[in-house]
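Researcher: Next entry in the queue.
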Amino acid sequence: MPAVTATGHCTNTAPAPGTIRTVNAKNIGPKFFHLHGRRYGTCPCGKEVSLTERGSLRRHKPPQA
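Model: Structure for this entry, 65 residues:
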C-alpha cells in the first residue's frame, strides 16, 4: 500500500503495470462524450484514476477501508 500524505492523498503517481485503459464513449451519446478517449489506470492502492497527459496518475485518495 503506497504512503498517504497528511491530507489523505495517495503519494503514488505511477499506475500499476498493465492496468491502463482508454474509455470508448463513442456510442453512449453527446452527454458523456467528454469521457471519450480518456485514459484510466489502477493505482496499487486499489483506486482507478484518470491519467495526466504524461501518463501519471492524478492526485487521489485511497479507497476507504
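Model: The mean pLDDT is 92.
Researcher: Noted, moving on.
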